[in-house]
Amino acid sequence: xxxxxxxxxxxxxxxxxxxxxxxxxxxxxxxxxxxxxxxxxxxxxxxxxxxxxxxxxxxxxxxxxxxxxxxxxxxxxxxxxxxxxxxxxxxxxxxxxxxxxxxxxxxxxxxxxxxxxxxxxxxxxxxxxxxxxxxxxxxxxxxxxxxxxxxxxxxxxxxxxxxxxxxxxxxxxxxxxxxxxxxxxxxxxxxxxxxxxxxxxxxxxxxxxxxxxxxxxxxxxxxxxxxxxxxxxxxxxxxxxxxxxxxxxxxxxxxxxxxxxxxxxxxxxxxxxxxxxxxxxxxxxxxxxxxxxxx
Length: 295
Description:
By secondary structure, this protein is an alpha+beta fold. It folds into 2 domains: 6-42; 44-137 and 144-294, no CATH class. It is built from 4 helices and 21 strands. Strands 2, 6, 7, 11, 12, 13, 17, 18, 20 and 21 form a 10-stranded mixed sheet that branches. Strands 14, 15, 16 and 19 form a 4-stranded antiparallel sheet that branches.
């Protein structure tokens, strides 16, 4: 599957349509569609990830980690209001440090603590959030479900005559980032950390050899996510590429984008289930991400 960016796809779409239809009516229509898609992108800035200042560090080095939210692997500081971190843990070969109480969070935002990495080897930082609520108009909710490949929710709404009903959703996040401290490697990134949505690489990303793809398993509540849309992102020099895949019956997907080498990478997906007897929301979504770098 080719690697694409949303902007390039959009430009190609309009170029093709303009060649096929040349009229003043289409000019107004294309403008309206463009504005609509921009508005949808602004509403659904929902990718969520951990971004350290550096992925490759020395022992006893301090590192800042930013909690990011945005689109196309381009983010801004996350948090504020009722959005809160419920768990922040640093996993090393010898211990798991619970850092949740060190997170600064208030109505203005969330700031993760500066980490001092005292052990050598590959390490893993994990973060989970509480639920937030969102309500979307039917058209915007359908656009969101379509964009993220959530066909199960689309089919349910069609079957139960809910296509004209607003989308009432609770959403939460699970994020990981892989840090390499010194030149000693281990299999820590391949371990299940027990989060609600797990993205588990089959191999330490920092031990991939040239032209070796990366396989990841996707689990929701410790069960494989089958036939789900998943993504791998690469960002370098201000540009983003993304690779789309569908998981198999074991919840696995293999990404070739990592073969491009240097850059920041993110593997991500979202899972959505119908809620029963919840007075506030009809749907629960859980967003997952795994970030790492390549030199």
